[in-house]
Amino acid sequence: MTAQKDQLGVGIVGCGNISGAYFRGLTRFDGLRIAGCTDLSEELARAAGDRYGVPVYDSVEALAAADDVDILVNLTPPLAHESVTRTLLATGKHVFTEKPLTASFATAAPLVAEARERGVLFGSAPDTFLGSAGQTARAAVDAGLIGEVIGASAFVTHSKAELWHPDPTFLFTRGGGPALDMGPYYIAALVNLLGPVASVAASARIGSPVRPVSTPGRRVDSIEVRIPTHASATLDFASGAIGTVLASFDVWDHNLPFIELYGSQGTLSVPDPNNYDDTVRVRLHDEAEWRELPAVIDGFTCGVPEELLPLRGPGVADLAAAITGEPFRTSSDFALHVLEVLDAIANGTDGAQALTTTCERPEPATATWRSAVTEETATA
Ligand SMILES: NC(=O)c1ccc[n+]([C@@H]2O[C@H](COP(=O)([O-])OP(=O)(O)OC[C@H]3O[C@@H](n4cnc5c(N)ncnc54)[C@H](O)[C@@H]3O)[C@@H](O)[C@H]2O)c1
Fold first, then answer.
1. 342 Cα: distance to centroid of ligand 1 (angstroms)
2. So what's the pLDDT on residue 380?
3. Chain-wide mean pLDDT for the chain?
4. Around 57, how many Cα atoms within 13 Å sit in the side-chain half-sphere?
5. Closest Cα partner for 120 from 338, 358, 323, 326?
6. Could you count the other beta carbons within 10 Å of the beta carbon of residue 153?
7. % of the chain exceeding 70 in pLDDT
8. In this predicted model, what pLDDT tens digit does every residue of 86-138 receive, in sequence order?
9. Strand 8-13 vs strand 122-124: parallel, antiparallel, or unpaired?
10. Which protein residues touch ligand 1 with a CB less than 6 Å away?
């Protein structure tokens, strides 16, 4: 480990779709530099290395062994998370993984235990709750703006992947589904706001057993659905709040909000938890109109030119800060609890299922990123 250096080196494992958001986003943190990347596809790794000026390694092991790599970031597909993360943890370096932690609670729990035994930090996306929207909503709840939170709702709806993805099969097989794919953003946001969940009661079913794919240039014409695609759940939070969650690839169109909190004094409207910085709104019972809440921290993506979006990175920076003793907000303890909730929603439960994990609410965050991003800083 290189604790004396000004910057910690980040190694990227998996140079697919989301990796550009990390290559660009991590440059916004002064204490981090991308030290290398690798992918099973040499072509993809080389393309990323050339584009972002990063050394390319021909294997995960070679990247992990590099002296200037302190943190390994797993950006492989969900079904590969378990084996890749296990390999990464075995190197004794700190590990951050994309969501979900792994494809199931049962496979994730041993990895979290292993990280603890090895004394390394293990973190996981989603980290979007560290953005200005998540933090503003959290500050509002903590200040008692809407009084006691009695209920909450979250609606995780269709990504319509059959219309734009060349082969969305992975979304309809183990490790996919609405709960595990998009659900992490919503449940992480709720646990950040309301604390841990005590029990989940959920019903889940397959919508259509076969789904046509109409994407122009598609690689498959249809998908055989292997997992539930429509789930409805009641979450009993330890705080006493009751959550209503819909997670579905069978709701094509709707007029539903993303997340709302229903308090004794008013309602808080929380924007899309897949984003860092949209606007939080509130309407107290005695107010005639909704009003926007001023953001409590600078947004991670505010002012970033459209062509440089999306960006990712606050979670990796959070882990880096935790190495020096700062609070670890995106820890795998938190993500494991979120995954246990998601697993119950995804598969349905036999009555109310008490959860075996719990977690602390993450500490409120401050903005640790540079205030502006330009083409130059994004690719530096
Ligand atoms: N695509 C998005 O918009 C998006 C957004 C947020 C989060 N995520 C998450 O990011 C992760 C990656 O998603 P993606 O869309 O970039 O997937 P992707 O399939 O586009 O890319 C994954 C890459 O990982 C590589 N890979 C697989 N196994 C590997 C291994 N053992 N060693 C090295 N490389 C390996 C693949 O070759 C591929 O290039 C997933 O967990 C997903 O849930 C994706």
1. 20
2. 47
3. 95
4. 22
5. 323
6. 18
7. 96
8. 999 999 999 999 999 999 999 999 999 999 999 999 999 999 999 999 999 99
9. unpaired
10. 13-19, 38-41, 44, 60, 75-78, 80, 84, 98-99
- Residue closest by Cα to atom 8 of ligand 1: 18
Q: 375 pLDDT band (50/70/90 cuts)?
A: low
Which tokens is 198 given? 């005590």
Question: At residue 359, what are phi and psi to the nearest 5 degrees?
Answer: -160, 165
Looking at this protein, which amino acid is placed at residue 158? H
Task: Give nearest CA residue, ligand 1 atom 18.
Answer: 16
What CA–CA distance (Å, rounded) separates 262 from 147?
9
Rounded Cα gap, residues 115 and 123, in angstroms:
10
CB 115 within 8 A of CB 174: no
Residues in Cβ contact with 57 at an 8 Å cutoff, skipping those fewer than 6 apart: 11, 36, 37, 38, 45, 63, 66
- Quick check: 103 and 82 in contact, CB under 8 A? yes
Q: Which residue has the tokens 């539930």?
A: 228
Q: Which domains does the chain have, with CATH numbers?
A: 8-127+365-379 (3.40.50.720), 131-298+331-354 (3.30.360.10)
Residue 168: C-alpha distances to residues 30, 354, 359 (Å)? 37, 33, 33
C-alpha closest to that of 205 among 243, 234, 164, 247: 247
Judged by DSSP in three states, 21 sits in helix
What pLDDT band is residue 3 in, cutting at 50, 70 and 90? very low
Position 105, amino acid: F
Site to probe by mutation for ligand 1, drawn from 73, 75, 274, 301 as the one with most ligand atoms within 8 Å of Cβ, is: 75
Residue type at position 260:
E
Q: What is the CA(378)–ligand 1 centre distance, in A?
A: 21
The preferred substitution site among 39, 44, 59, 88 for testing ligand 1, maximizing ligand atoms within 8 Å of CB, is 39
